[in-house]
Amino acid sequence: MREVEILSKESTKHHNEHPEQVPTDNESLHDKFKNEQTVDSIPLEDLKKDMQDEKKKHKTKDDSDSEDQFKKRK
Predict the structure, then answer these.
(1) Is 30 exposed, middle or buried (0-12, 13-18, 19+ CB in 10 A)?
(2) DSSP readout, 50-73?
(3) Between helices 65-73 and 44-55, what is the axis angle to 10°?
(4) Which of 3, 19, 29, 30 would be 41's cystine partner, CB 3.0–4.6 Å?
């Protein structure tokens, strides 16, 4: 059990998911400023997709965000 915890900590150390959604070892913007530590980040791509969905009310969810995410990873 202890080994699993150590391995998981080591693996996340190198591939941190920051609020900017870029895996990096650098400090995130939310960590740099004290007043930003309680703020939830909203990914711009998701926000744009939601705004488009609101405009196209009859065609909402013809495409999904998860499919877009999957395409980017390929």
Answers:
(1) middle
(2) HHHHHH-GGGTTSS-HHHHHHHHH
(3) 140
(4) 19
- For residue 24, the one-letter residue type is T
For 47, phi then psi, to 5°, come to: -65, -45
- Global pTM reads 0.30
List pLDDT tens digits, range 5-35. 554 444 444 444 555 566 667 777 667 777 7
* Cβ contacts of 13 within 8 Å, gap of 6 or more: 25
- The token pair at 70 is 């999957």
CA distance 56 to 61: 10
